[in-house]
Structure formats: structure tokens, C-alpha cells
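Much of what follows relies on a compact textual record of a protein's fold. The record below shows the convention in full:
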Amino acid sequence: MHAYRTHTCGQLRKEAVGQHVRLSGWVHRRRDHGGLLFIDLRDHYGVTQCVVEPDSPAFAEADKCRSEWVITVTGPVVARTAETVNRELPTGEVEVRIEEVTIQSVAQELPLPVFGELDYPEDVRLKYRFLDLRRDRLHRNITLRSKVISSIRRRMIEQGFTEFQTPILTASSPEGARDFLVPSRLHPGKFYALPQAPQQFKQLIMVAGFDRYFQIAPCFRDEDARADRSPGEFYQLDLEMSFVTQEDVFAAVEPVLHGVFEEFSAGRAVNALPFPRIPYEESMLKYGVDKPDLRNPIVIADVSDVFSRKDVEFKAFKDKTVRAIPAPGAGAQPRSFFDRLNDWAKSEMGATGLGYVVFESEGGKLAGKGPIAKFLPADSLALLAERANLVGGDALFFSADAKKDRAAALAGQARIRLGKELGLTQEGRFEFCWIVDFPMYEWNEEEKKIDFSHNPFSMPNFDRTKFLALDPNDRDTILGIKAFQYDIVCNGVELSSGAIRNHDPDVMLKAFEIAGYSREVTEAKFSGMLNAFRYGAPPHGGTAPGIDRIVMLIAGEDNLREVTMFPMNQQAEDLMMGAPGEVSQRQLRELHIRIVQPEKG
């Protein structure tokens, strides 16, 4: 018999009754029932109930065992009586009668319990992550992550993609976030950077003629943490394709994501292929965000013209962008519901408020009630109801601001909140869409300059000759340029950004010039890629859905921490390993580095 186990703790079934077996694992739970001692033994595969009687030679040793001790038990498999069968366990029809027990290791008093799913502070969970990972939900999530990655990898290979690995030590480049820098011992004063993404390398792979590339790529960005963004590092399905249009990329990615989500949906619906394509401007108008949750049926309407009419006396909305957010059925809500939303708009969104009208049916016609309604003539109220597709018993909220983007942002967040509070957002399903036609550039109000609005390596959707002739000061024309850029979104979560790449060196130099980078700077920063493009580059494009976010959605979690094996905390610290940590003076000397502490105060 094997020294540690003949079976796993999730393997035994009724057919094994009578067999002499050996199991090893952790003491999940210990129960003393009137002399009989029950031990639920757990390993990676499951739980098996083991039992020992007081007159057994093994009882004294088994009685010592406590939670999370690692033990090996040996004995026969017996059938449970009908009244003691546990239908919730795959092994619930049998138990092991302990004849021999060996204690492999003991556990000190636990800083957090493994049995049960009690919520514990983040610092405790991360410091003792090895214990946290033993808990059923988290253990299941991490196993799910591995299965999802395996499924993605298989589907990509079936689509004709080849997996390659790109460098981890590379050069710093301006890609939107801070780099993690690595000092060079051999080249004093110079630094490597950990890749924010394999962007340049995957494009060079296309130039090298490999046609369809992918990898499950680690990416490193020195960014602040959020629930949907891990600090420090994350993984993405990085892919690139040659000789493709935007639609070709969609046709390759959609079956992979649709298939993976269907495979692990556990009965949740996934919207049909092809996924909807929504232009950026339309998304910002209808949903107030560029990552809309299409499970929410609320569609925002622009009603600026209604409040600009001469017979509308509500001056607070005059000469402003006004967005109307329908609230179906909200007319039945108490006054406190409306007050609470208004307070939320002021306190959390920094707005002046969230006006509203409640519509009621009176004699076959709609009438408006509420603080704003008295300023609106009957025909204007009717027009608002028509624009928002409302009936009696519905309400209409308003977001207004002199700046279009701020009005859209408040409307978008109000739509999300209303969808949840009114129970309109459909749970138990996955709704994908593509957001397309992003603007190539945006205006940076703080620095009074034009910036890239998305991926700087994207191909502008603009005539090449006219683009090369653009005056960098022609702001109106430049801000009107669209790019072959696209995001894929699921349930309001952006899974990835992608683009058809700019493979033309002259267009790339011009694109960066418009964003304020001189030709010399662009040549220096992207010399590898620009030089490669001068030796024959195919048209190419790709995208990079985030693995962490995919698993988070499938697992039904709200935080990436719950699907990441060893995450950092919100301050980008690894509490378990003590990173970041101090290093010795010898190490610093080898790297030609001297630490300069920040000034206090």
C-alpha cells in the first residue's frame, strides 16, 4: 500500500465499500458524537468522512487531531446508513472506519478559520494566504482559473494561433501607466522595464512573419489598485493577427470568449454571436459609459433641445447638455427614493443634483409630477416621455452640465444605479458587446494639449495623405479623427482593448507628433518597431482580454483578489512575502544605486 494514499479524499463512492484504503489530507472538521469521533478529511479533490470508535487502537491518536493538522488514515470503506447519507458530498454515501492514523504535521492556532466562509479582514487573508486558499470558495475559484486558461489555450490553438513567449525585461515606453523599473548591474545608470503589455513584441512577431500569435501574458503596471484591477501585475490573453481587418479580429476572438463563457456558465445564458457593435459616441449617449452593461434595459436620451425651447421656464438646464435617464416603474417609489438619488448625485458624483419628473396617466394622457414638472408645458412633457419611451407610473431623471462629458458621466452612473435599485438589471446571464470607432485623440484640459485617447499604436481611420498633411494645431480636425480601435465588454466590465495597428512608419511618426512627441523622441522610444516596419510590415491587429477579469465574471466575484492566487493589497504590498522590502547595501552597490529618501512634511 502507498505510504500516503490509495485514493484522494474526493474519490470514494459506494462501489468502494469493503476496500481497505489509505487517505491523506487536512482535518477539515472534527466532531465528537457521544464516543464516536468523526473527522472530515480534506484534500484538493474533496472531503471524506472518517470515523473511529473509542475502543479502537487508533482512537487515542485520532483524538489528538485538531483543525488543519495533516494526517494519514487507513481502514475499510463502509456504507453509511440511509439516514446519515450526505447528499451534498460526492463521497457522502460512504465513510472510512479508521484503523490506523498517522500525524504528518500539526497546525498552530489558526489566525483565520478554513472551515466555513466567514469574511475576514483583507490584511489577515493576504498575510495568511496559504490558509485562505484552503477555503472552499477560493480554492474552487483558483481551480476554475486554471481550467479557464486551459480552455482558452485549447480554443486559440484550434483557431490556428501559435503560442510564443515575449521578454519580461525590456525597455521603458510611454504606454499610459508607470513602468516598474529594474536597474542594470552591467550598465550603470540604465534600467530595464517590466512590460506593461507585450505590445511592441507582438507586433514585431507579425513583422517576423508568424501570422497568428497568442500567449497568456503577464503584464506589469505601477498603478493604484481597484476592485477590477490588480496592483502590480495581471495576466491577459494577448493575441495578434496579420493581414486582417477589424471584423477578422472579432471573428477570431468571439468564438473563444463565447465558448469559454458557455463552458463554465453553470446555466447562465451567453448572448448569441456575433456580439453587437456599438460606436463609442452611441455608447456614451445611450449608456453614459464606454463599457455598458447590456443586461440593464435603460437607454439614456439626449433632451438638451427640449429644455432649450422658449416655452420651457426651467433656467437651470438652459444652454447645457441634458441627458434623460428613464426609470421604469419608479413612480411607485416613495419620496425618499428620489431624495436618496439626489443626495447620491451631490455627495458621490459632485453634481448639483439629479432632477426628475414622475409621469402619471390622467384621462388617457400623461401628466408630470415633481419639482421640475411645473416648469414644463404639456407638449414638452409629452416629448420627454416619447423620447424616453415612458408610460404612466414611470419616472425620468435628468443629468445636466455645461460640459458634455460630465453630463454623460452622471447619466451613466445613474443608469447603473437605477438598474440595480429597481431590479431591472438581469442577473444570471452574460451580455457581450464591442465598442468601436473610438476617437484617436482627446484634449487634455489640464496640460492644454492633445493626447492619445486610447492605444497610441492604432491606425487612424483617416485618409493617409490628408493625415500626413495635418497641421498639429488644427484641433477640431484632429479631435474628429476616429481610429481602428475597439474594446470588448461583458456585463459592464471592459475585458480588453484592441486595434488594427499602425504599421506605416510615416503615419506613426505623424501620429506621435500630433500628440506632442518629436520625431527624435519617437525614433528613440520605438526604434525597434519603427526600424522593423521599414523592412516590410504586414497590416495587422489584435487585442488582449484580461484573464483575471474573465475569471472574475465567470466565478461571480466582485473583486479580482478572489480569483488571483497571491494578490497584493490595495497599497501594492505582498503581506505574506514582505514585498516590497529593503535590500542590503551590498546589493545596492552592485546596482550602482543610492537611496534618496523623500523629504518629510
Notes: The radius of gyration is 30 Å. The CA atoms of residues 15 and 505 lie 69 Å apart. The longest strand covers residues 20-33. The chain is about 30% helix and 25% strand.
